[in-house]
Amino acid sequence: MKKITAVIPIRKGSQRVVDKNLRPFAGTNLLTIKIEKLKEVKVIDEIIVNTDSEQAIEIAQKMGVSFHRREDYYASSKCTGSEFFEHLGR
Q: What is the pTM of this model?
């Protein structure tokens, strides 16, 4: 059986809405909501927060999910979505 991994990309340098996933929202934040919802999906074997944000790493650890510290280039606006997802596969 194949392993299913959910990846949550969180960039601290969001340009349109700065820190949109970490800002207070409805008594929590969007990252916490995303992790909680993904934990409800029984077929997901692992959740990884892919980020360059220390705050996002702290939330991931507190919630018992994995994290991957994103390299600077892959957290920059210079990196395309295609490059980011290709890099995930390595």
A: 0.83
Per-residue pLDDT of the chain (90 residues; tens, 9 = 90+): 789 999 999 988 777 788 889 999 889 999 999 999 999 999 999 999 999 899 999 999 999 999 988 877 667 677 666 776 667 665
Residue 61 structure tokens: 């650890």
**Residue 66's domain spans which residues?**
5-88
Domain count, the chain: 1
Task: List the CATH number of the domain containing 46.
Answer: 3.90.550.10
Which of 42, 44, 47, 43 is closest to 32 using CA atoms?
Answer: 47
**Distance in angstroms (rounded) separating the CA atoms of residues 83 and 25:** 30
